[in-house]
Design goal:
Blueprint (H helix, E strand, L loop, with lengths): L2 H19 L6 E7 L4 E4 L4 E5 L8 E8 L5 E8 L4 E11 L5 E9 L2 E6 L2 E4 L2 E8 L2 E6 L11 E4 L2 E4 L57
Antiparallel strand pairs: 1-4, 2-3, 3-6, 4-5, 5-11, 6-10, 7-8, 7-11, 9-10, 12-13
């Protein structure tokens, strides 16, 4: 075998490996089969697509394709088959160190890319969004807050919000759901900032004791 032939074979093998793995120029591809019972696909980088039971009518090959994000962006992923409509919403979770991020769906039209911001939910060390169909999602840094957020708060796109990290705060018994719903286990109505709400004009008592161990409707 000549040197030229050997070099050509090595080049061809390298190209096949690149195509098979879907990794080129910072891109990565992870896939798996999910059926009517539901399931999940996770990437080594910490992105997880969770499909609930009933969302798919048949066994389907689901892929998460990561591509090089644009300058200033954090991540871009394509959920494939793109355009596949789900009978029930799936969730896409991103492992992050700083949850102050924005997530948007990216659609491609005749005039270029169209971004639609997605409502995110914050969990312990991750953020997630719901999707009703598979497509392209981009993540970028959120706005910074003008001033440092106080205890129990974190900056979320320029606004200090309750640190809803799902971890019980021993000082306030705040489990961080921040959904305004009384938790029967802790009587946690979510904000739990350790301060009672101000009484209404003319009232002598506050309507709700908001110290974490007493919530809506509890004395």
């Amino acid at each position: 075998m000549t040197t030229t032939t050997r070099s050509a074979l090595v080049l061809a093998f390298t190209s096949l490996v690149t195509l098979a793995t879907g990794c080129s120029g910072g891109a990565g591809r992870t896939g798996g089969t999910i059926g009517p019972a539901g399931g999940a696909v996770s990437t080594p980088s910490g992105i997880t697509l969770r499909v609930p039971a009933g969302a798919l009518a048949r066994e389907t090959e689901i892929r998460i394709v990561e591509s090089e994000p644009e300058s200033g962006k954090m991540a871009r992923v394509s959920l494939e088959p793109r355009g596949l409509v789900l009978a029930a919403p799936a969730t896409v979770a991103f492992k992050v160190e700083d949850r102050n991020v924005r997530l948007a769906e990216v659609e491609h039209g005749a005039e270029g890319e169209i971004r639609t911001e997605l409502e995110k939910h914050r969990g312990a060390g991750e953020v997630e969004v719901e999707v009703e169909h598979l497509g392209e999602i981009e993540m970028e840094h959120g706005l910074t807050c003008d001033a440092a957020c106080g205890a129990g708060l974190e900056c979320d796109d320029g606004v200090c919000k309750a640190d809803d990290n799902g971890i019980d705060d021993p000082a306030t018994h705040d489990v961080g759901d921040d959904n305004g719903i009384d938790d029967p286990a802790t009587h946690d109505v979510g904000d739990d900032n350790g301060v009672d709400p101000a009484p209404a004009p003319g009232a002598t008592t506050t309507p709700i004791d908001d110290h974490g161990n007493h919530g809506a409707g509890h004395p």
